[in-house]
Amino acid sequence: MIERWMTMMLVLLAAGCAGPGNAVPPVVREARERADDGHDAFAEGRIEEATLAYGEALSRYRSIDDPVGIVRSLVNIAVVRNASGARSDASDCLDAVDRYVATLSPGEIDGELNELRAEAAWMRAYLELDAGRRGSAWRELERGRALGPPRGMRGRFDNLEARLRLEEGDAAGALSVARRAAGINRRAGERAETADSHRLGGRAALATGDAVAAQAAFESALAIDRDLARPGKVADDLEGLADAARAMGQAGTASAFDERARLARRAAGE
Predict the structure, then answer these.
(1) pTM passes above 0.90
(2) Distance of CA 225 to CAs 217, 234, 236, Å?
(3) How far is CA 222 from the centre of its chain?
């Protein structure tokens, strides 16, 4: 679960630096340090420590009522809680984002804050889709897009749309969106998201009956996921290749890919 959210965390933790001659106030410096601690802990799988560190960053930002810091911290906590399986906690944090932003005047809502709100909407859409509430997921997806997500997140929005379309049975639409997302993510340098686009495209291609295209898509995803060392995703790619081989009538090859996927998951402790 953690590897799924790491790319998002890296985006959320980006913070502005003080300009020449502008000393960072101690409370802001402390908040940033605690956020950095949270990122390090999360990257190493120390979920409770990450939650505590982000909570301390949130407290410091709240002490000076810093809108960007508050929203960033709440979304970071939501990501960590979701990664630990506490989805209700994650949802509560996203609710807190909406409640806080509702109290701000238009002049207090700048571009950076809207980008963070877009990321929060994407996460809400993800949670809603995982819960099987596709209608709500669509609404959150469109809400996030309307807020102007940062360039590096646009392909992630498309990936989620492709997944939504696939789950609704619109395989052709999912394939089109996944291919578009692959290009957007590749140009943005978002390699993990590019791999996810290829994997979604592979699933969509299988659903349309194009096993050859599916095989190519899963091979592209596997090449990236191997390079990024994403164990769970590598296993997903191998399973996709097994499905593509089966669809082409290659039972022996499919069995071999299934075995590789099984061994990959067992080695990863899944």
Answers:
(1) no
(2) 12, 6, 10
(3) 18
